[in-house]
Amino acid sequence: MKKSTGVVGVVVILGVAYLGATWYVGKQAQAAVERVVAQANERVVKMLGADMGTNSIRIEINDYQRGWFSSEVSYTLFLKDEDGKPLELKLHDKLQHGPLPVSALSSGDFMPMLAHSQAHLLATPATQKWFDSQNGKSPLNIETRVGFGGTGKSVWSFSPAELVEDGEKISFSGGAIEMDFTNDFNDNTATGQVASFSITNEQSGENLLIKNIQGSSKTTMSNENDVSTQSSATVDSLAIDSPDGGAVVLEKIAMAVDSQQKGKLLDGALRYDFGRIAVGEIDLGSVSVGAKARQLDVDALTELGKTYDAIVARADISADEELVLTDAEEAVMREKLVALLASSPSVSIDPLIWKNAHGESKAGLHLDLASPSNAQEQRTDVLLAEVLKRVKLDLTISKPMLIQAFGQVESDPQQAQQMQILGAMIYDQYVARLSGAGLVVVEGDTASAAILYENDKVDLNGQAMSVPEFLQRAMSAVM
């Protein structure tokens, strides 16, 4: 009898201890969730600027009902669509508290953890049709294991879907994203894949089909203000088909983005590679293009964009129409531009490469920019000379490649041959004129140019000259 009483006492003590641990861990889990949400919003602000980050995308905790063994949490993700109209995505989370959440134990995971989250998307006006395609079930489910010490693993599962919206049929194969978190949830790695995605206009018959999308990213934070991100994505093929014309097909697409942000300054590199571009029967070959930026002030760039958008809105015109600035508006734009140039940023195309079966042509442009003095009083030409601290242009054009490109414009063999002759004539005519002015150097079937502007001097294909002399040569080639 005494032995059984002792066993019962031990069980009671263990039970009370577990209840206390669960209550404490549940409290810690809530603090972790609130901290992660705040960190996510802060990171968006750092990447996009204060105004865009706050107004364009943010996440809020609408309700947090903490119980003893689990909590019910509701989130809203605020976004804007392509027209600037607000969108809301809502999530509901069933959060089982650690150290041994029942939901994790039932799935065979016996590792101690802070919480086991099972969240799903809720229906909103923005997602209602997506829900309807699932017969009312959630099209997105998220399972997250939140470890101790700021670690975690999250799996996002998207269900296959087919829906019709505004006369367009959308087919989605479903997909998944897996994310791992470390360093108090500040660092993460992610991978994702989607087998296919298509949009078909049921009236016109036009179709967009994307196959095998895969992506990965890695984000690390060395301190509160330094964030580094590397992202990449590949697509096997993207095809745009129309009953009225030949299909446009892009194959072996690759994208890479690298960025390092220190405070408000951003260094970034972006690259797109298209392994093959085809328009109907025409094989245009491959295209690769990259862009880089250094010392870019994100806040100043945001302010410049806001100012321009406000001027366009007051003028009641679309942004692509010709805009005539008043003196006051020009003064404000100059002020914002000077603020952007204060960090001495640089931008470049690094480089653009076009290849086909007969050769390749490429172009690269690098600009080092500087803040001008007395920007409000300078003439535009003087201002431009001060802003452009260093300009470097490299250009290479392959004659066989250009002739091949011209010939592919026509499918008829005889007409294709005539187009090739025309391409050769255009190349010879312009290259001869540019070569005569010393603007290009010809070696065999390749014409190239290397132009460097720095310290009010120009280096043209290895020959130093003044800016007026360079402009005179350029004008003689154009006239």
Overall description:
This is DUF945 domain-containing protein. The protein is an alpha+beta fold. It contains ten helices and 22 strands. Helix 5 (298-315) runs antiparallel to helix 6 (327-341). It has a 22-stranded antiparallel β-sheet that branches. Strand 16 and strand 17 form a beta hairpin. It has a domain at 264-479. The protein is 31% helix and 47% strand. The model is unreliable at 1-18 (pLDDT under 50).
Present the secondary structure layout.
Elements: H1 2-48, H2 50-56, E1 58-66, E2 70-80, E3 86-97, H3 102-106, E4 115-122, H4 128-132, E5 140-146, E6 152-158, E7 161-165, E8 168-172, E9 175-182, E10 187-201, E11 207-223, E12 226-242, E13 245-262, E14 265-279, E15 282-297, H5 298-315, H6 327-341, E16 346-356, E17 359-369, H7 380-387, E18 388-398, H8 399-407, H9 413-436, E19 441-443, E20 446-454, E21 457-460, E22 463-466, H10 467-478
Antiparallel strand pairs: 1-2, 2-3, 3-4, 4-5, 5-6, 6-9, 7-8, 8-10, 9-10, 10-11, 11-12, 12-13, 13-14, 14-15, 15-16, 16-17, 17-18, 18-20, 19-20, 20-21, 21-22
